[in-house]
Amino acid sequence: MNSLDxxxxxxALWIVAGLLALAFLGAGLMKIAQSKEKLAASGxxxxxxxxxxxxxxxxxLELLAAIGLIxxxxxxxxxxxxxxxxxxxxxxxxxxxxxxxxxKESQAIVVNLVLLALAAVVxxxxxxxYAF
Length: 132
Hints:
Elements: H1 3-33, H2 36-41, H3 52-75, H4 81-102, H5 106-127
């Protein structure tokens, strides 16, 4: 691999991590700020299967993962937290996919799998050949 390939992959990983961070920042803040009932009314029917506290916890984990995807690496402070945050998102998306599968919500599963794959790529790249 030449250095240009490494630079290109590093940029691609930053872009993917940034997009994931934006998505989960929004999703996490929404789950933290809105009531279970408001979330359900906005189309998140799955919230009926969880307590309000569990929904807030999921939101907090998504928010922490969003922050963890960017800040540790950007600041150079414990950058190993970046791929760990990506692994955390993989776990959250596995749980989300299982929840949607039980509810037979196949469109939501597709979204979960795409987000899972993107987070897995960040985890692989930052733990492996493109670590900080």
